[in-house]
Amino acid sequence: MNNNEIKMKKKRKFKVPTSFTILFFVLVTIMIVSWILHYSGIKVENEKIKAIGIIDLFVSIFQGFNDKVEIIVFVMSIGAFIFIVMKSKSLDALTQKIAWKFKDKTIWAIPIIVVFLSFCGSAYGMAEEALGFHMIVIPLMLVAGFDVFTATITVLLGGGIGPMLATFDPFLIFTASAAANSSQAGISEPTDGLAFRIIAWFLVTGFTSAYIMFYARRVKRNPSLSYTFSTLEEDKKFFLKEQINEVPLTKKRISICVIFLLMFLLMIAYLFPWDTLIGKNIFENAGIWVQENMPFFTSLVPGFGHGDMYVVAGFFLIGSLIVSILNWEGEETFVEDLLTGSKDMIGVAFIISIAGAITYLLSETGIKSLMLSSINGSNSNAMNPFAFIVITFLLFIPLSFALPSTSGFSTAIFPVWGPLANSVTIGSTSITMVSGSITAFAFANGMANMVSPASGIVVGAAQIGRTSYGTIMKGTWKFHLSLLGINIALLLIGTGLNYTGSHIF
């Protein structure tokens, strides 16, 4: 093969476009559709569909930012907090301590690591952040007689199922719920279906731990069954030539881990509608009492269950300050860390802005009204809820490959899908399929991100573990196929549980 042929081969190689490009392509598509509908004379509520221009595409991005600023501020404050916590190495120390504690029974460190990573992903969407744990787990598994692949899938699958089993993930649950409400107010609460999502988290996390432990036991008994057997000796030389530096779990780091957990419990406490659950205004009145009697503490922040994302963002900022004080390196360093952590979320913020622009343009052109009137005019409320939830899940899988960002997907899709799901009711009850659709989206997006060749967690795992994407897929395809069946079964069971008259799913 000559040089020209090699160059031609390289040119033909397809590269998956970024979320920014895909979303902007959607904006362009909306513009073209607006022209077609406008000049075809299509009307909605006696007004012609408005045609938009090229300049409108770029202006709409900042309008989208303005419309989604609450979510963006929320995301950036969490980004700053997580960066400052990760910089302290407190989570690294905790994970390492747990892992080495089970050095003689290392196989039992697998479920602990999986549960920890899954919890972090479920609570706040940790995915790519888990990549750093590969370098802790790989030496541990090799020393214990396992292989690199065991360590790789422990972190990859443990960190991958977390966002899929989202319970309070602000990048998925809250953005999807807010997006659904943007078209039809009050049709979704982030806590709808929470009990079901928690049960699903326990079941799937348990299954994942068992799957990895089964593989690990097989490999230890017969190393030739390892998917990375051919490089086993090279892996030992590479990863064990220098034992991993121990990160001591000091009292300071324990305190930071406690604060880390408390911050997310505080987020749940402020966003969960406690008064609605118990049918009384206990927490609202408690908040008013604090405002009146302790104004030096707060005279603006409401009680538990009545806060919004601005309030929670403020708490995360306070959390960042407390962690920085415990790990004090100076005022300039604190500000730099705060800005760096926020900067890491600029990409997410921009994706949310472009996705918000999609909603804005659909609304301004009248296309969204046309779509909603079509949904209302259809007989979708007669659609079988079981068929609807499976179709939603299977449809969202390929869409998640094209649009992997959970916040971008939520903001772009759920302003339309929310009202559609709201029109599908469970039997004679008034329970709709909105929260079920959000759970189906979480399942679909999580599965897509664990197998996509463009996924950061998959590519990163392959690079750090010195293996290939093909090897990872060869070793996990049975897991993903089983997971597909489990997710469909859970969605059908959840839909069935709503027929009891309680909004479980």
From TrEMBL:
The keyword Transmembrane helix applies. InterPro entries: C4_dicarb_anaerob_car-like, DASS-Related_Transporters. Pfam families: DcuC. The chain crosses the membrane at residues 20-38, 69-86, 107-127, 133-157, 164-182, 194-216, 254-272, 309-326, 346-363, 383-403, 481-499. The keyword Membrane applies. GO terms for cellular component: plasma membrane. Keywords: Cell membrane, Membrane, Transmembrane, Transmembrane helix. This is Arginine/ornithine antiporter. The lineage of its organism: Bacteria, Bacillati, Mycoplasmatota, Mollicutes, Entomoplasmatales.
